[in-house]
């Protein structure tokens, strides 16, 4: 089980790449929200194509290895494949071709392609902008953007303990292997995994009691101070303007080429 | 069962976001100072549990365990599952951004409903009966989630009806798996640390 949350972002070489790596975390979160809102409402292939192309350009410019990012995109496509394959056959409209007696419609193909492009454009931008942040920085950025402190605390705690509990899980799986457990498709496997999950929850609860006591000792009053040095720089203003231009171009293309509702 | 950006209509997205905001607010209200660490650490353990894959013949499915999550966290399951979905969307690319509200609602509301209905019963039950309630909670939450996912799709377009039906039937093995796992987990927790279910209302033991 490869775990990605703990990997710190390494600053890539190159002027443009270094610039991208330094983009303000708050801007990354806000930009991706705006991007997702705009792109999810687009219908024209020209606009959707530009959205996806912008993501690919950012991927190339960021200098990070493209393969893992594209792999994650492909994994998401795998999830929605069944839905996209069904759509052409279930949408009424102009017949395009028939397969085993089922007719695929032009409108259905169009909708499926629309969803595919939208989903990939957004996921790519998500993985590139906030996705390269460290999880703790994401929490801080959300806090700075006005997400309620309680929710930010919960996110920070979750992020902090995912790696701890992940290694606890691996230890318990190893102990099960040492007792000759091997996972199969049978009731015994499921019951054993259920006991494993139950034990993880019991241990998590006991750990949280120790954590609470330790934090109270240190004067925990319910608020985690967000210690960071997020500073808005001139480059961030430039990025924001560029991104606004991209969104404006998307809307303009939609208006020019879009199909009416 | 993550729905992606672009598939749902705007009214469905907005309703999902509004209802999820309400659920998160209710959940956070119950998360007092004493319960922040417990909620965070339990939320992390459900995140890790969702990375466990179970073989189903030649294929495999990952655990969701939203039923068990609701049984233990009550309303706090709402913010906990939201956090898990945010992390999965941002770092793994599962799901999307505008659909976060709908996706959270689909997975957290069944969790909370199972928690409200079954948690008091489990607190009073013996091991056998607790296993039964655990199984119902585990399978019921998945069943409701698939119904909600199907609903979100169908409300967005008639053309999704076959896909929505497929979602439900494809998850019947998942319901069975989650039933057994949740039942076993509930039995173990009842034996080892019954206070996880004993606290009144949907509260976490402080």
UniProtKB/TrEMBL annotation, chain A:
Main location group: membrane
Localization per Swiss-Prot or TrEMBL: Cell membrane
Residue ranges of coiled coil: none
Record-annotated membrane-spanning stretches: 32-59, 79-100, 112-133, 145-164, 238-256
One Pfam family of this chain: CbiQ
Membrane topology of this protein: Multi-pass membrane protein
Keyword Transmembrane: yes
Keyword Cytoplasm: no
UniProt keywords, alphabetically: Cell membrane, Membrane, Transmembrane, Transmembrane helix
CDD domains cross-referenced by the UniProt entry: EcfT
Name the UniProt record assigns to this protein: Cobalt/nickel transport system permease protein
Species of the source: Rhodobacter maris
From TrEMBL, chain B:
Transmembrane segments: 12-30, 36-56, 63-85, 91-118, 130-155, 167-189
Subcellular location field: Cell membrane
Alphabetical UniProt keywords: Cell membrane, Membrane, Transmembrane, Transmembrane helix, Transport
UniProt main location, coarse: membrane
Keyword Glycoprotein: no
One GO BP annotation of this record: transition metal ion transport
NCBIfam families to which the protein is assigned, alphabetical: PRK06265.1-3, PRK06265.1-5
This protein's GO CC annotations: plasma membrane
Membrane topology listed for this record: Multi-pass membrane protein
Protein name, entry field: Cobalt/nickel transport system permease protein
Pfam families: CbiM
């Amino acid at each position: 089980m490869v775990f990605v949350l703990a990997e710190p972002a390494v600053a890539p070489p190159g002027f443009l790449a270094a610039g991208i790596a330094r983009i303000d975390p708050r801007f990354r979160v806000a930009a991706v929200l705006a991007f997702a809102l705009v792109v999810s409402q687009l219908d024209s292939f020209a606009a959707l194509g530009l959205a996806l192309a912008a993501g690919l350009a950012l991927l190339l410019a960021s200098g990070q290895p493209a393969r893992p990012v594209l792999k994650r995109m492909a994994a998401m496509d795998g999830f929605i494949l069944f839905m996209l394959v069904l759509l052409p056959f279930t949408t009424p409209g102009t017949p395009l071709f028939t397969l085993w007696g089922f007719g695929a419609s032009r409108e259905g193909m169009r909708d499926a392609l629309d969803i595919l492009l939208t989903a990939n454009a957004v996921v790519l931008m998500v993985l590139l902008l906030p996705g390269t942040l460290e999880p703790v920085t994401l929490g801080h950025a959300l806090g700075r953007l006005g997400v309620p402190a309680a929710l930010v605390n919960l996110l920070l705690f979750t992020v902090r303990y995912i790696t701890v509990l992940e290694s606890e899980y691996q230890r318990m799986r190893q102990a099960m292997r040492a007792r000759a457990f091997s996972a199969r498709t049978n009731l015994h496997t499921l019951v054993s995994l259920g006991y494993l999950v139950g034990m993880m929850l019991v241990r998590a609860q006991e750990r949280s009691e120790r954590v609470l006591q330790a934090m109270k000792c240190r004067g925990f009053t319910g608020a985690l101070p967000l210690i960071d040095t997020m500073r808005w720089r001139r480059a961030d203003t430039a990025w924001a303007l560029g991104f606004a231009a991209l969104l404006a171009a998307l809307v303009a293309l939609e208006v020019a080429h879009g199909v009416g509702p | 069962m993550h729905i992606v950006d672009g598939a749902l209509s705007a009214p469905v997205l907005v309703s999902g976001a509004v209802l999820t905001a309400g659920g998160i607010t209710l959940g956070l209200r119950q998360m007092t100072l004493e319960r922040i660490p417990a909620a965070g650490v339990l939320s992390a353990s459900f995140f890790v549990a969702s990375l466990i894959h179970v073989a189903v013949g030649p294929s495999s499915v990952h655990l969701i365990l939203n039923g068990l999550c609701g049984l233990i966290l009550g309303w706090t399951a709402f913010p906990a599952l939201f956090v898990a979905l945010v992390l999965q969307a941002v770092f793994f690319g599962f799901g999307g951004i505008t659909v976060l509200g709908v996706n959270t609602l689909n997975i957290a509301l069944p969790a909370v409903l199972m928690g409200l209905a079954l948690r008091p019963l489990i607190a009073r039950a013996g091991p056998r009966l607790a296993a039964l309630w655990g199984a119902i909670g585990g399978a019921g939450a998945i069943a409701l989630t698939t119904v909600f996912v199907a609903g979100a799709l169908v409300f967005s377009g008639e053309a999704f009806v076959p896909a929505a039906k497929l979602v439900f039937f494809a998850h019947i093995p998942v319901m069975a798996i989650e039933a057994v796992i949740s039942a076993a987990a509930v039995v173990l927790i009842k034996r080892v640390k019954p206070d996880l279910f004993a606290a009144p209302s949907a509260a976490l033991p402080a």
